[in-house]
């Protein structure tokens, strides 16, 4: 994903829209703030999410942060690499949370959802607005 | 510490040290209008001799279990406590320690709790145990709330009516502000009918709670109950008797997802109802939803083994209102007593204690069943306690036994949550528990006392 072309929420989630499918993750700014991520709790496929409402959690050693849905819809895919899951042959594979640090806008995607209402995207920030928002909150 | 020194000279020295004229000066920050202007209305003080005599008189109004033969059941029992338990736990380092918040300053405490957790995990056949909760009743509630979090089902829980009615009451108290339905399944034959249970468990049900052995002492079909729960995606919660695991299958082997217990039987005296010990263990997949303190083992920067508070992001001091529970402590001293007890008796000792309880209970049940006007109520297999029906009334039976320095009960009429048993029957029903501490002679004396109409 090209960060310049994404939409952002004030709570540091990004969203990329292709047709009626939205791919959602968290930004490098958020990952940097959280530091030392140890666990991500993501919703199951089929779960309904609502713009502005929590859809999951990320946990660092000292804190837990809610993940807020940037758009409303229904979860159609979850990035299983971010959670412990069974690989081929039934072997348990550990979560690869450093994907959030190394590739937050690509391999570190969190969920894909079917977008209910495209007009919700106008509630979000574009790349430069988001950057300004981050500069303000850092100052 | 039997004596605190506080002479007038010492008080003066302390006041001088902090640069204050009198004790009264320390109260100056309280507004004058709120300060009491007269002496407290207390009786004249007693001398040490008079005080001791007075307190001894008060204490003599109580009779402890050690002075009589205790056959009482219903959740707390007169099991034997080996002297090593008091010897280890009365050490100042353990006895006065608070629950640990700073790992670097509490390694001894943390190691003790880690051992406790390890013992409980092995005892239950489950993956992980926390470092304890307050007691059995709130433990059941914590397990139910945990199951709701794990399944995401917040609206319906199914509880077998054969669990301790005081645990049911505790659950109802916690649920006062919740919309969730608490479905109680009656057990008129002493155990639950699994087919009937199946009709009550649906895909909205978060959990099914079963006590094994149940409140009546009877053994439930836990595995079948677990299968019913799992078929609908609900979790199985078992409330178990720790000492029964010497001869009964472990909760983990029966399919329990979460196992909770009252740990009083593990080296803790009756103590007029507390402090007791809440035990909670669960499968690995649920560990992040567990309430309570969780101790982990790791290595420090020098590669030395050390202990720490694990997964703190579940707890209040990190998550505040989003925490898994409002509990932010554990029953450290009681957990240590249980750990010492279990370490001492080991698997073989556990088996021996279990067998003794079971055999003695069955001997007692057989003899009591033969008394005219006295009979065993339920036909289901039992472990160490059972319900008898005394024709002349449960309270009459209790009085007759008491006259022989024997305590039995409780009478089921004490429990209004058992309203699916008729009032008439409840007036005649009472529990009798037989632990390894009871002798044949005591059992025979009980039989004699109740045979006397």
Fill in the keyword field for this structure:
heterodimer; A: 139 residues; alpha+beta; OB fold (Dihydrolipoamide Acetyltransferase, E2P); six-stranded antiparallel beta sheet; 3 helices; 17% helix; B: 453 residues; alpha/beta; Aspartate Aminotransferase, domain 1; Aspartate Aminotransferase, domain 2; seven-stranded mixed beta sheet
Structure commentary:
The complex is a heterodimer of chains A (139) and B (453). Chain A is globular and about 45 Å long. The mean pLDDT of chain A is 91. In chain A, a hairpin with a 5-residue loop joins strand 9 and strand 10. Chain A has helices spanning 28-34, 99-102, 127-138; strands at 7-8, 13-18, 21-26, 37-41, 48-49, 54-60, 64-68, 73-78, 85-86, 92-93, 111-115. In chain A, 34% of the residues are buried. Chain A is an alpha+beta fold and 139 residues long. Chain A contains three helices and eleven strands, in the order βββαβββββββαβα. Chain A has a single domain, classed as RNA polymerase II/Efflux pump adaptor protein, barrel-sandwich hybrid domain (OB fold (Dihydrolipoamide Acetyltransferase, E2P), Beta Barrel). Chain B is an alpha/beta fold and 453 residues long. Chain B has two domains: 65-81 and 347-451, Aspartate Aminotransferase, domain 1; 83-340, Aspartate Aminotransferase, domain 2 (3-Layer(aba) Sandwich). Chain B is 37% helix and 15% strand. Chain B has helices at residues 8-18, 23-26, 48-59, 83-89, 92-95, 107-124, 136-151, 165-174, 194-200, 222-231, 316-319, 332-369, 394-403, 423-428, 440-451; strands at 69-72, 128-129, 156-160, 181-185, 205-212, 235-240, 258-262, 278-282, 295-299, 305-309, 374-376, 385-390, 406-409, 429-433. In chain B, the strands form four sheets. Chain B has a seven-stranded mixed sheet with strand order 2-8-7-6-5-3-4, sandwiched between helices. Chain A binds chain B through residues 39, 41, 59-64, and chain B through 288, 312-313, 318-319, 322.
